[in-house]
Amino acid sequence: LRSAFGFFGNVALEDGTPVTDGDVVVFRKTPSGPFVKEDSTLLDASGNYILEDVVLGSFIVLARPNVTADPYQFAVQTYYFSADTYSEADELLLDGPTEGVNVRVIDFTPPPVGTATISGEVISDFEDDVIEEESDVRINGRRKVRKAACSMRRFKTTGRDLQEVEEEIAYYIETDDEGYFNFEGVADGKYLLNIEFPGVPMDDSS
């Protein structure tokens, strides 16, 4: 017997503006490997969502605004409560009916314009049965990861010892249906490239 409950909440930008074009995805936390998609739902016209039948357990909740549409082109996929990486997300321990699972979507300043182009593809080596076919980070026949969050954080040099400090997100894009990403108009500089795959840590040397 598996007991299930629902939960609901609201998704808004940092200034409080409701996110009305996008969805919410719930991932069940697993000891290793990618987290398992449990459920998903669309946001309504007020930025609200409800998930009515989620089995008890530990989860992370991901809000995904439609970054191809105005006014969300400078917003990023954001985990509950307000984190852009799964490792910093607040854990949702579901042990009964829950309300107020609100997400404040992170946005960033329009990036500097340059002439560089950085592109690539995201491919998974995990078995196909680890991730459901309909998962929004699903793997197709060529094992490409769709809709992965790809961000570039710029470094700057500060202080007398010329220490390099990581700045906020400078550029953000999501992979297409074939797993490709393409950053265009990138300014000169040193960046940390991060690709979000919930439950799979990034290589720190990236």
Please render the helix and strand layout as text:
Elements: E1 4-13, E2 22-28, E3 36-42, E4 48-55, E5 57-65, E6 78-79, E7 92-94, E8 103-105, E9 116-121, E10 149-158, E11 163-174, E12 180-186, E13 191-196
Parallel strand pairs: 1-8
Antiparallel strand pairs: 1-4, 2-3, 2-5, 5-6, 5-7, 9-12, 10-11, 10-13
Q: Provide a count of the helices.
A: 0
- Major β-sheet, in short? 5 strands, antiparallel
| Order of helical and strand elements | EEEEEEEEEEEEE
Global morphology: globular
Number of strands: 13
Distance between the termini: 44 Å
Q: Which structural class matches the secondary elements?
A: mainly beta
Strand content: 35-45%
